[in-house]
Amino acid sequence: MVDLTLRRAGPDEYELLGRMNRELIEDEHHRNPMNAAELAERARRLIEKGWSIELIVRGREIVGFATYRREPAGPLATQFHLRHFFVARQWRRRGIGREALRPLLARCKRGECVVIDVLEANPEGRAFWSSMGFEPYALRMERPVYVADLKFLRSPPAARRGTSNPKATLAINELLVSP
Ligand SMILES: CC(C)(COP(=O)(O)OP(=O)(O)OC[C@H]1O[C@@H](n2cnc3c(N)ncnc32)[C@H](O)[C@@H]1OP(=O)(O)O)[C@@H](O)C(=O)NCCC(=O)NCCS
User: Fold this and answer.
1) pLDDT at residue 173 is higher than 80
2) What is the pLDDT of residues 40-56, one digit of tens each?
3) How far apart are CA 37 and CA 21, in angstroms?
4) CATH classification for the domain delimited by 4-131, as one of 1.20.58.220, 3.60.15.10, 3.40.50.2000, 3.40.630.30
5) 23 lines ligand 1 (CB under 6 A)
């Protein structure tokens, strides 16, 4: 068994959190383009909004972090939403993820569910959560919005019949390049 502690991250650790969050994004193949400095700033905002960010510490070394909060899940119930869970690359497959999850689960209430989004592009993450007893509940599906979709809704009936509308076309092009 690995000897770990979890403790709240302080303001002087946001920079480190930003760097770890950037690695997490890369490792799970998330699309988030924020750099480490932006993620450090976001860590501060998340804490202001009620998220808890805890560092996973082994001896004196910070080896990962977890971000979570309790949220409503329907009119009566709550859920424990685990937003980030990260073990530094050099520390993986040594049981740290497994051991760090224990104190987090101990913070839950009886009858509550722990929820985490696992990206389709992250089979390693999925294998980890499966081995911790998590099961898929929902599958989020998506598809890009195509020019044709926007044209149909935004342009006047004349344009749908083939008359071009330069203003509507410009608006559509602007939408397509926005991040
Ligand atoms: C997922 C992650 C937190 C796992 O942490 P870890 O400390 O390496 O996990 P553990 O060593 O405690 O592994 C526990 C069990 O999970 C499973 N597991 C963990 N990583 C795995 C992998 N890459 N492939 C397959 N199974 C894996 C195994 O069953 C493992 O037990 P075993 O080593 O005895 O076979 C870590 O790999 C990580 O931070 N990845 C990048 C970020 C990420 O994907 N986070 C989760 C977002 S959903």
Assistant:
1) no
2) 999 999 999 999 999 99
3) 10
4) 3.40.630.30
5) no
